[in-house]
Write a structure and sequence with these properties.
- The protein has helices at about 5-20, 50-65, 90-95, and strands at about 20-30, 35-40, 75-80, 100-110, 115-125, 125-135, 135-145, 150-155.
- It has three helices and eight strands; from the N terminus they run αββαβαβββββ.
- By secondary structure, it is an alpha+beta fold.
- The strands form two sheets. Strands 7-6-5-4-8 form a five-stranded antiparallel sheet, with no helix packed on it.
- The chain is elongated, with a radius of gyration of 18 Å.
- It has two domains: about 5-80, GMP Synthetase, Chain A, domain 3 (2-Layer Sandwich), CATH 3.30.300.70; about 90-155, Ribosome maturation factor RimP, C-terminal domain (SH3 type barrels, Roll), CATH 2.30.30.
- Helix 1 (about 5-20) packs across helix 2.
Length: about 160
């Protein structure tokens, strides 16, 4: 994580707790000549446009009061829903996704596969177990967290 992301995350953690929202993802990126501070938020039952507008105002007000400013240059603040295929960024996020359909990418191919999609049937502090379809058979794969490059919820087709 960048210095800006770390500082902003520290600043907004308490706000998110007070307001009852989860910070799913936070990015500070340059696109063209513009900088963007992007928040993906969620809460029990999901978020809508009003939630995003509300938290955008709260975050903006909070960041405007901080001295010294963690982001001294101009930037655009964006607050959105993580979407149906929300990223699973932490061990806790993955553990909350038990019984859900997920997509997991690996750092290195496992049995010739670079990713797997299936139902997360177990997530402990050490590893996860995914049940997936291999042609017509159901199989299970056990992965340690250090094998996982990225994980996200997935839509089963």
């Amino acid at each position: 994580m960048s210095r800006v992301v770390n500082q902003v995350k520290e600043l907004v953690d308490e706000l998110f707790d007070q307001e009852g929202y989860d910070l799913v993802d936070l990015d500070y990126v340059k696109e063209g000549k513009n900088w963007f501070l992007r928040f993906a938020i969620d809460k029990e039952g999901g978020v809508d446009l009003n939630d995003c507008a509300y938290m955008s105002e709260k975050i903006g007000d909070l960041l405007d009061t901080v001295d010294p400013d963690p982001i001294p240059s101009a930037y655009y603040l964006e607050v959105s829903s993580p979407g149906a295929e929300r990223p699973l960024k932490s061990k806790a996020d993955i553990q909350k996704a038990v019984d859900k359909y997920i997509h997991v990418s690996f750092y290195q191919a496992i049995d010739g596969q670079k990713f797997v999609e299936g139902t997360l049937i177990q997530a402990t502090d050490d590893d996860i177990t995914i049940q997936y379809a291999d042609k017509t058979r159901k199989k299970e794969m056990v992965l340690t967290y250090d094998q996982i490059a990225k994980a996200r919820l997935a839509i089963k087709i």
